[in-house]
Amino acid sequence: MSFSRLGIFLLLLPSAFAVSQAQTGNTASRNGLEVFGGYSYLLSNPRFGATSDLPSGSGFNVGVDGRIHRPFSLVGEISVFPLNCNCAYYSTPMETTFLFGPRYSFPVPDSSKLRPFVGLLIGGSTYSNTSNRYGEAYRNNSSFAYEINGGLDYRLTPKFALRGAVGYVHSTLTPYDPQFTSSGYGRAQFDVDLVYRF
Which of 126, 59, 129, 49 is nearest to 87 (CA)? Predict the structure, then answer.
């Protein structure tokens, strides 16, 4: 290699490095913090002979996903479910979960629009009801809760993505009425969210 070519190479090297760093920085910035929210459905898991099974319900969830070290992030999520109660004596009970924990996003090429993930969230669940009759079963109380979930992000634009997720939710709401049993059993949660990446 001649000295002129070597000189040109050395002059171009810093600019190439700067472009590479800018692209890396853009990628890190794009994936550094995400906010999401959308539709959520909590599916009851009926048990034969148990009169206290909490009903299913449609609601919404919102959350924040902060990347700590690719491919790991920390997620905080709140889900609110007005539970279905088809009875004239019952008001609409409300269950809310507050969960936090790690999420692992599987490495994919930058060109891929799909990004699968799995997560483990822990926190609490609250139950509220203004009905005197059904409210006597659980009244207004809270319990420990956790969720094991997984899903898939579909990138719409560099900033927006569509997320589908399914999770196993477990809480242990304790009833006050002895004819009702504990809610310590698993239920399925289905989410469809819009994701915005900063």
Answer: 129
